[in-house]
Write a structure and sequence with these properties.
Protein name: Membrane frizzled-related protein
Number of helices: 7
Membrane topology: Single-pass type II membrane protein
Keywords: Disulfide bond, Membrane, Repeat, Signal-anchor, Transmembrane, Transmembrane helix
Distance between the termini: 73 Å
CATH topology of the largest domain: Jelly Rolls
InterPro entries: CUB_dom, Frizzled_dom, Frizzled_dom_sf, LDL_receptor-like_sf, LDLR_class-A_CS, LDrepeatLR_classA_rpt, Sperma_CUB_dom_sf
Organism: Perca fluviatilis
CATH architecture of the largest domain: Sandwich
Length: 545
């Protein structure tokens, strides 16, 4: 094709351009008569005279050739434009087909999932049906987000990452990877690096892993800048979703997956009247970077009793490296925590207050021990009896007789403190005291309790002395969320029952996200580990100062 950059358009009326359109039918009458003089006929000679050679050459002369070039270039440009438009249409159709394939392979509740925390949120089909019937119809596509990544991964192992990784991922992003391995293999995902905007509960940007187990869906959501342990799923098909909003973006994530046999994974759902669970490879050392979650459910009218027959994890005072955590609820984001355990001391027998219990095992990249094994069993509330030295709560738990009418609610429903009119114990008086530290005035609560058993602080005077070191940060914009966290820890909220409540994990995460640079600038150490605080928003379980 000729170089179009040298084509120019002129407005000169020179004679060289007169014969651009070489069609005699459109020439002026005078010119036509001059040129076709040789075609004139006479009444006696019917035969036409051939035109002169100069006329025949003029029809294909330099002017006509220039016109052919211009017309050809115009036609070529038109065809090029049509080709580009057709290619754009085909690309759009192909992209739409890929996106429709991803949406078609998603579980029923994939695109209708509501904003939640970074914890695991099991849902069942009944709940999803109820949500669909009580909420307005949701579109199957989400316009603000664009699918520019993702795909269907069917190899036995592989890797995937956010767009531009390790650079920042784009805003308004929706990426869905569908990982599918042949049964009976299960999907194991290792997230090697993670930098996604937002603290828990991950309302801005998030990475989400969803698996479909029988009639329920299990969702685990991650954000922040700490890579989670290896995710051992219990499904052959897993959906991994990355979403971002229009604001701050991190460097995203990098992850690897592989297909494993059921004997090499951990976690899952337990629904029988009794069952067994253990750490991976037990009694051999468990692997590094593990996250195993067991969801235990029994029939109505029963509670769950969990007993450990072997227990050996990495030893640490606050159990933040390797640990087993037991929740009295259907997942790790609601209900009270029955306990977090590590080291070599056997945990006590644990009993749920209802029909659900969740057991979570976490291992970091450091020391590994032989792990644990445990058994659970369903106990009927009707057939359950307590010994003569114990009192039976209405929820089925047994508490010691000496705890009756002592002013403390030892039963979950407070049954041990009901009908205590003739009690010989003195009437219950709250040990709470008003907050007197000036820095912590104006919180959502004004009562605290000392001594502070978490930080070993004797009274408010000692707490005020320790808080003075943070006054240098009062002029910073991030001081308010930091103040709420510090006051929540140094002067914890006193509950009406006389106990104290730690601040919720979201309070700590917000302060950490907004003040981490300022603390580093002033050489302050991070005051607390947010993962040790309750991951809940329930005011009965933690405080929101």
């Amino acid at each position: 094709m000729s170089d179009l950059s040298q084509v120019a358009v002129y407005s000169d009326s020179s004679d060289i351009y007169k014969n651009v359109f070489c069609n005699p039918a459109f020439e002026l009458e005078g010119e036509r008569e001059e040129r076709v003089e040789g075609f004139r006929t006479s009444s006696s000679t019917p035969e036409p005279i051939k035109p002169p050679a100069s006329l025949r050459l003029g029809l294909r002369g330099p002017g006509c050739s220039w016109g052919v070039v211009v017309v050809s270039v115009a036609a070529l440009l038109l065809l090029t434009a049509l080709g580009l438009a057709l290619a754009l249409i085909l690309t759009q159709i192909k992209g739409q087909a890929v996106e429709d394939q991803l949406l078609a392979t998603s579980p029923p509740d994939r695109l209708n999932a509501e904003d939640g925390g970074s914890h695991t949120l099991p849902t069942n089909s009944a709940n999803r049906s109820q949500q669909e019937s009580t909420s307005a119809p949701q579109p199957t596509r989400i316009p603000p987000y664009e699918t520019r990544c993702g795909g269907v991964l069917t190899d036995s192992e592989g890797s995937f990452s956010s767009p531009n990784h390790p650079g920042s991922y784009p805003p308004n992003l929706l990426c869905v990877w569908v990982i599918r391995v042949p049964p009976p293999y299960l999907v194991q995902i290792h997230i090697s690096s993670l930098t996604v905007e937002g603290p828990s509960p991950c309302l801005f940007d998030w990475l989400e892993v969803q698996e479909q187990i029988e009639q329920s869906s299990v969702v685990t959501r991650f954000c922040g800048n700490v890579a989670p342990p290896t995710v051992n799923t219990n499904s052959s098909t897993v959906w991994v979703t990355l979403r971002s909003d229009s604001s701050i973006a991190g460097s995203g994530f990098s992850a690897q997956y592989r297909a494993i046999l059921p004997g090499h994974n951990c976690g899952g759902q337990k629904t029988g009247p009794y069952g067994y669970l253990s750490s991976p490879n037990h009694p051999r050392p468990y692997p590094h970077q593990q996250l195993c979650i067991w969801y235990i459910s029994v029939e109505e009218g029963h509670v769950i009793t969990l007993s450990f027959s072997n227990f050996s994890l990495e030893t640490q005072d606050v159990c933040e490296f390797d640990y087993v955590e037991v929740h009295d609820s259907v997942n790790t984001g609601a209900g009270r925590v029955l306990g977090r355990f590590c080291g070599t001391n056997f945990p006590p027998d644990l009993t749920s207050s209802g029909t659900h219990m969740t057991v979570m095992f976490v291992a970091d990249e450091g020391v590994a021990d032989s792990g644990f094994n445990a058994t659970y069993k369903a106990v009927s509330l009707l057939g359950r009896t307590c010994g003569p030295s114990h009192f039976a709560c209405s929820t089925g738990e047994c508490v010691q007789q000496q705890w009756l009418c002592d002013g403390w609610n030892d039963c979950p429903d407070g049954a041990d403190e009901q009908g205590c009119g003739n009690s010989t114990y003195p009437p219950f008086t709250s040990p709470c005291e008003f907050i007197e530290v000036e820095m912590c005035q104006g919180l959502s609560y004004n009562l605290t309790l000392f001594p502070n058993i978490w930080l070993s602080i004797a009274d408010q005077r000692e707490a005020a002395t320790l808080l003075r070191q943070y006054r240098v940060l009062m002029e910073l914009a991030c001081f308010e969320p930091l103040r709420r966290l510090l006051c929540g820890m140094f002067l914890p909220q006193c509950s009406p029952q006389g106990g104290i409540l730690q601040p919720c994990r979201s309070v700590c995460s917000s302060a950490e996200q907004q003040c981490s640079q300022a603390l580093d600038l002033f050489s302050f150490s991070r005051p607390f580990n947010c993962h040790l605080l309750p991951d809940s928003q329930d005011p009965m379980e933690c405080s929101l100062p």
